[in-house]
Amino acid sequence: xxxxxxxxxxxxxxxxxxxxxxxxxxxxxxxxxxxxxxxxxxxxxxxxxxxxxxxxxxxxxxxxxxxxxxxxxxxxxxxxxxxxxxxxxxxxxxxxxxxxxxxxxxxxxxxxxxxxxxxxxxxxxxxxxxxxxxxxxxxxxxxxxxxxxxxxxxxxxxxxxxxxxxxxxxxxxxxxxxxxxxxxxxxxxxxxxxxxxxxxxxxxxxxxxxxxxxxxxxxxxxxxxxxxxxxxxxxxxxxxxxxxxxxxxxxxxxxxxxxxxxxxxxxxxxxxxxxxxxxxxxxxxxxxxxxxxxxxxxxxxxxxxxxxxxxxxxxxxxxxxxxxxxxxxxxxxxxxxxxxxxxxxxxxxxxxxxxxxxxxxxxxxxxxxxxxxxxxxxxxxxxxxxxxxxxxxxxxx
Length: 397
Fold this sequence. Notes:
Elements: E1 38-42, H1 47-52, H2 59-70, E2 79-82, H3 96-113, E3 117-121, H4 123-130, H5 144-147, E4 152-154, E5 159-164, H6 167-173, H7 179-192, E6 206-210, H8 213-226, E7 230-237, E8 249-257, E9 260-265, H9 268-278, E10 284-287, H10 290-300, E11 308-311, H11 312-319, H12 328-336, H13 353-359, H14 372-393
Parallel strand pairs: 1-2, 1-3, 3-5, 6-9, 7-10, 10-11
Antiparallel strand pairs: 4-5, 7-8, 8-9
Helix pairs in contact: 2-6, 3-4, 8-9, 12-14
């Protein structure tokens, strides 16, 4: 790790750090009395912090203290740590490898202190906390503007994780963008309100995977007979758009509860029963970005979807119009602390570059190479989480 000159910190880098032989600065231990069940994770020690062996005592730290004082909180009554434990040379932004080297110490502090709230100050702290856990191939997957303001019930930390701006950014922006300090204080206020509220635990949905055509037909016959008021469904297909010859729906999943979903393979016989559900006006259909399922139902099954009552992506956009926050994977992360249920299949749901360059949105992906067990299970998770999100959005859960 690139380091400056530490004075009061006393501990050297642990043996797990492969860069420890390059460190000249001792590591800074977490500080704070811990009277409040709140842990702040900042970026890295600055000059003042390195000299005194304590986090958040420089100019930006003093600003944070002022904001907290206005909210009736003394920072020293909380716990404080940094994403990296040694001061980078010239205050450079920590590299991903450096964050990875220090990450075990962050989790050791979380396990020891057991905070109800973890407040992540800035993009580096977000990378430190979620790096290696959150799977999303989107651009700027761990960017601060995407994550700030959420109160995330992290299932591993058993704590509310609340990302917000780093106070140094707020200080830089406050003169020409006065809304930034207002947002910063609002984020802090909402996070601190959770200090005495344990984060909820969300059990993983039960996914029933049906590989037999007979079992799938029995499942659909039950749905036709029961006529659920609300039914969430999801497709896994051979591409993004269905118009090129040869495209097909590989599997489908359904959910009538947030705790379980059923996933099955599509066949001619199964499709005949599924059409009866699609055209039933008494069954309200829900999903994520339902125009996708509508197009595939219309083009491949020749049956438009009747009575779509809720679209979780559209509603998420109304709730928060920031770029990159409406997708199901991100919503599962910030709503329930679910960071990865798709990485085992993601590569197979994309076309090769040559195929994409030639056919664009009508390109075939590599879904037929995906292990069928993984694909069907993933499809089930989509429906279960879409149903849970819809229920929350409609105030029914």
